[in-house]
Amino acid sequence: MKAVERAKLVRSLRQESRRLRLLVLVIGFFLITLTFVVFIKPDAILFNLNGRLSVDQAPRSLLIRQGVDTAATASRRSADTLAAAAEDPKVVDGDSAGIEANANANAGGASEDEKRVLTSETEQGKMAEAAPASELLGGEEEGRNGLHKGRQEDQEHKMTLPTVSNYSIHETTNDSDNGKQEDRKTDSGIKLVTDVDQSNSRDRSHQPALDNMGWDKPLCDFSNFRANVCEMRGNIRIHPSGSSVMYMEPAGSMKDEQWKIKPYPRKGDELCLSHITEVTVQFSKVAPECTKYHDVPAVIFALTGYTGNLFHDFTDVLVPLFTTANEFNGEVQFLITDMAIWWTRKYAVVFEKLTKYPLIDFNKDNEVHCFKHTIVGLHAYMELTIDPLKAPHNYSMVDFNKFMRRTYSLPRDEVTSLGEVPKTKPRLLIISRQRTRMFLNLKEIVAMAEEIGYEVVVEEANVNSNVAHFANVVNSVDVMMGVHGAGLTNCVFLPHSAILIQIVPWGALDGICRVDFGYPAEQMGLRYKHYSIGVHESSLTDQYPLDHEIFKNPLAFHKNGFEFVRQTFMDTQNVRLDCNRFRPILLEALDQLNQ
Predict the structure, then answer these.
(1) pLDDT tens-digit profile of 442-458?
(2) pTM recorded for the entire structure
(3) I want to staple 511 with a disulfide (CB 3.0 to 4.6 A). Which of 136, 393, 494, 531 is the partner?
(4) Number of domains the chain contains
(5) Is 446 found in the same domain as 383?
(6) Which residues are within 8 A (CB) of 326 and not within 5 positions of it... i.e. 6 or more apart?
């Protein structure tokens, strides 16, 4: 009996030992995987740990989420007509009838590039109203109704104060003096201010004569569908710990007004703005004593929202920030709410070009900052676009394109004609994707392009891409192509007159794709080509029979809302380009490069 019991005990110990070893292996594998993810994708980890939205939740276009308030008399295409057109989609150069008509009407005898640049947000708005809803929104009636309601709310929020255009505000005397702050940026890069050095900040010899300045009321513009902005000049005190911007009233003033702003340009997107710190702008007779005085303007903006996705990095922050702050030539102080330190490091060179001063983390700063000129919020327009008719100093996307090339010290400002450099092949960059909207026959596409005469470069753009490296790669090519997605945002680094080819997935997405990249590319002075794939080029044929409604009438699926459209036509679709059908596009690009 003892021998039997001993044998049972030994077997039991062996089983426990095996379980323990298995548990150790599982835990070890988990720790190794976690360590690998942290080191390989620190940006993505930080992005989620900081509590911000997943980039997968970000809308591809503000127009999709808010809709377009189309005119009641606007012409409409039938779903059957568009579906038939998509079955045999036409390859176009990106000069739609709407854009061509507006460019000709406004630019007169200007060149084609100048016509594209002169197309403003106002003109785009007219085109959006004149265009059929099916083209821009895929027949999403709910979106149009939502925007109509949003516009009614905007009317309710309009200020009773005198209103002026953005650029007329900036025509007043610039308060950017030559005075310097004590907390300067170090040679090693941007200095982040969280606990501001108070040793010199309270020295009254630095105090400007705030009380003797001319008084003017804050000017708040809540009418823009994209962003709310307040701009003011006078005795201004910013108290970050109180999330307030106080405009000190002169003696005898009876003002008692305030405005609340979430300084991130996704107005109307409640999901996004729910994560943004609200800033209160108000008249005040009493405020905390100044602890730090500034002789330069202040710009307050947020970094949470959808940042972390390359498209939103630019359309939500970098383009609006350039539009708002570039005129100050570095003499401007940034106060950033909902700071993402990894993000400011990723774009440190951009901040170094726009400001000479350390960034202030609005949510962690306890100082009371005194300014003579403050802007709360960023001037923003359509997606990845600057409206030159409204922007300060009439900035345009051509200016932004030049700014990005200068910021990253890119060598090519203009595409050179192929004949100017003998035996030089034109360079073609293919933006590849690894999760969705992939090229399933990438090797075949590369071989076809090389046969035509291109030198082909294949790169993947993701959240971890080194911006400086990718910028240099993009700037070195003459043609860039890719399936609709954030990677196409890299077109901001292309030299002037380069060619962007956007591959549009199946699903009646042409309007969305034009808004996100087509119009912005043209406004940057690039030449744009738009290629809509046919049914046989979509991987959806592996999931659905050819007689399925998804191929007969894709617009019908748009009625289920954008999230459904994204999941159906973007997240689960890949592309198998028909090289014989796509070949003429690359040949046309070659002809244009020779002109």
Answers:
(1) 999 999 999 999 999 99
(2) 0.70
(3) 136
(4) 2
(5) no
(6) 354, 392, 395, 399, 403
